[in-house]
Design goal:
about 270 residues, 14 helices, mainly alpha
């Protein structure tokens, strides 16, 4: 669904639930709108944060811990990114509630968001620890989508640490799960993670081809890379690495070749990264 349609639907939901005086639904609608603004309308971050704060206020007034946990998790996104301590505190409060509730899927999601925050803040060892735990809970939950996200993120964190075997293992797990579920974005991000491994393992031409495939899909077949998320951070690092390993003409040639790969060929090439 295009960003404009998502925003319109969320804004109408907020207006409706204000009119109907349904605070639980209002809290959820507020956080969905806040997340939509944060993801697709970054200049309106302050409005997104105000909506997240309102969702928290509504949830606290309800004395509903789970509604509060979701609202807190959203504010972990919308707070100014430089305020690492507050972001961490809010996400940890949200995770603590999910842990008390015992839902593996939501615990895994809370751990994933914490790992993303830590990675973006440069706390890569903390991100790796949370990422490992997130994958364990995602697998226990039986949610393929949670597994795809957690495994891809863990692959990126492991690659950043130079832990190539675990990066390959996690990325392959994410790619196979994404291919089975036909998740277009999941396939892209898992292949990008394997491109990062290929560059790290001194296979820059393969890495560039895989990245060219990913670039051709971003913003067309699915949403583009989101700022401050591990897919975007690792992408910037990968471009710098490839520019150091390949002459400009060679890099351009391989990126262009990758853009012409069909999905099955790209998956096969990505799974061949060793």
């Amino acid at each position: 669904m295009p960003a404009e349609a998502l925003r319109d639907a969320a804004e109408r939901a907020v207006a409706l639930y204000r009119t109907l005086n349904e605070p639980v639904s209002l809290a959820h609608a507020l956080r969905v709108l806040a997340q939509t603004l944060w993801l697709y309308y970054r200049p309106e971050r302050e409005l997104a944060d105000a909506l997240a704060r309102e969702a928290i206020e509504v949830a606290r007034a309800l004395d509903d811990e789970l509604v509060l946990a979701y609202a807190l998790k959203t504010r972990g996104l919308t707070i100014e990114s430089s305020d690492v301590a507050q972001r961490r505190s809010i996400l940890e409060e949200s995770l603590a509630i999910f842990l008390r509730d015992g839902n593996d899927q939501q615990i895994g999601s809370g751990l994933t968001w914490l790992s993303e925050m830590e990675f973006g803040a440069g706390e890569e060892t903390r991100a790796l620890g949370y990422g490992r735990a997130a994958l364990r809970y995602a697998e226990a939950s039986g949610s393929r989508w949670r597994l795809e996200v957690a495994a891809t993120n863990l692959a990126i964190y492991a690659a950043s640490a130079g832990d190539w075997p675990n990066a390959i293992r996690a990325a392959r797990k994410a790619l196979r799960a994404s291919a089975e579920s036909r998740s277009l974005a999941g396939i892209t991000w898992a292949i990008q993670a394997l491109a990062t491994v290929a560059a790290g393992r001194e296979d820059p031409r393969r890495a560039a081809r895989l990245l060219g495939f990913c670039d051709a899909r971003c913003g067309t077949l699915h949403a583009p890379r989101q700022a401050e998320q591990c897919e975007e951070i690792s992408y910037r690092r990968l471009r710098v690495r490839l520019a150091a390993l390949l002459p400009p003409a060679d890099l351009s040639e391989e990126l262009s070749a990758g853009a012409t790969l069909d999905e099955n060929a790209a998956i096969a090439e990505a799974l061949a990264v060793a």
